[in-house]
Amino acid sequence: MSVLLDAAVQAGPAVRSVPALVDFPFAEGYVTSVIAVSLYVSVAAVALSTLFGVPVAIAMGFADFLGKRFVKSVINTGMGFPSVVVGLLVLFAVSNRGPLGPLDLVFTREAMIVSQFVLATPPVTAISLAAITGVDDAVGDAARALGGTRVDTALVVIKEARYGIATAVLAGFGRAISEVGSVLIVGGNIVGSDGVSKTRTLTTAIQLEARQGRYGTAMALGAVLVTLVLLVNAVVVRLGDTGAVNR
Amino acid sequence: MIRLDGVSHAYGDDPVVEDVSLSVEPGEVVAVIGPSGVGKTTLLRLLALSVRPTAGTVTLDGRDAWALDDDERLAVRRRVGMVFQDASLFDATVERNVEYGLRIRRPWAERVRDQVRSVLGDDTIPEAVEEALDVVGLADALDQDARSLSGGEAQRVSFARALAYDPAYLLLDEPTSDLDPRNTGLIEAAVREARDRGIGVVVATHDMHQAERVADRVGVLLGDGFTEVGPAETVFETPADERTREFISGELVY
Ligand SMILES: Nc1ncnc2c1ncn2[C@@H]1O[C@H](COP(=O)(O)OP(=O)(O)OP(=O)(O)O)[C@@H](O)[C@H]1O
Ligand SMILES: [Mg+2]
Question: Which residue of chain B is at minimal alpha-carbon distance from A160?
Answer without folding.
Answer: B91
